[in-house]
Amino acid sequence: MIWDFGEIIAGLALLVVAGDLLVKGAVAMSLRLGIPALIVGLTVVAFGTSAPELMVSVAAVLDNAPSIALGNVVGSNIANILLVLGLPAIISAIRTDLHDTRESFVLMMGATILFILVCFMGPIGWAQGLLLLFALSIVLFRQIREARAHRANRGNGSAAETEANEEIESVDPKMPLWRIGLYVLAGLVGLPLGANWLVSGASEIASAMGISDAVIGLTLVALGTSLPELATSITAAMKGRSDLALGNVVGSNIFNLLCIIGVAGLFGDIPVPRQMLQIDLWVMAAASIALAPFIFGNRVITRGVGIAFSVAYLAYMVALFIGGSA
Questions:
Q1: How does pLDDT run across 4-15, given as a tens digit for each residue?
Q2: For residues 87 and 306, is the Cβ–Cβ distance under 8 A?
Q3: Is 240 exposed, middle or buried (0-12, 13-18, 19+ CB in 10 A)?
Q4: SS3 per-residue string spanning 23-55
Q5: CA–CA separation, 93 vs 248, rounded Å?
Q6: pLDDT the model gives residue 15
Q7: pLDDT of residue 279
Q8: Could you read off the pLDDT of 142-153 as tens digits, one per residue?
Q9: Domains and CATH numbers, the chain
């Protein structure tokens, strides 16, 4: 089992590094090709930052462990709200009036409802996957259209484009082509390799502990793939910018529900365990609804709320392991 945990840790590390390299290379290439930075930020960066979760889910389906793929998405969305928002709020209260995320939240709830309906339709296959991807295309279209309108209202020209470029952090638009190719190649090779290590180790641990792949996906894999977002949110909170975490969490959850399972469903059927239909999907929905008073009421996510979110997540993890072992 020590080897399996080592495989998981190595897989997670490789996923983080490879995902970062792929994002930097893809963004630099897009900017070199003249694609507006605004479009790059809403598409290439969004896809790239979700690449680790996407590769883990596809690898799980191909390795005949589809429950890990489903658990990864549901567990990641629960962790994003209760943990990725909870821990930073303990460090620095999260103000919800600095960014208007009401429409994004409505889209997230719509994606959540659609996802739950798809799960109750039976095994998620290519038809359900295409439905989720179609919904994703609508979301992306709306985001790009509104972002363009917002940019136009703030002024056109080089100044606006320069600001858009600055929003894409740590990327040099003049990066040499050889380095761009190296980054993209390293990302494309490292992501599937890291995903295979993570899924393999997780499956072995599930078998050794006598618990289901779904529980491992909901806990170990979901928490592991959410670590980059958690680290980013905590760093932002320490700098007094914990408000940035809210928009990132809402956007990430939409992408997880529509893109990751949508793509994974194209590679094979994903059965939905009964426990997930009875408990876990509703925990995810409840965690999402818990954000509504803060987003629509412009209430601050205080330290007390952050503690409550974090304790709720810990209690959910304990209940999963106890139930899974039983």
A1: 888 888 888 887
A2: yes
A3: exposed
A4: HHHHHHHHHHCCCCHHHHHHCHHHHHHCHHHHH
A5: 16
A6: 77
A7: 92
A8: 877 776 666 666
A9: 2-325 (1.20.1420.30)
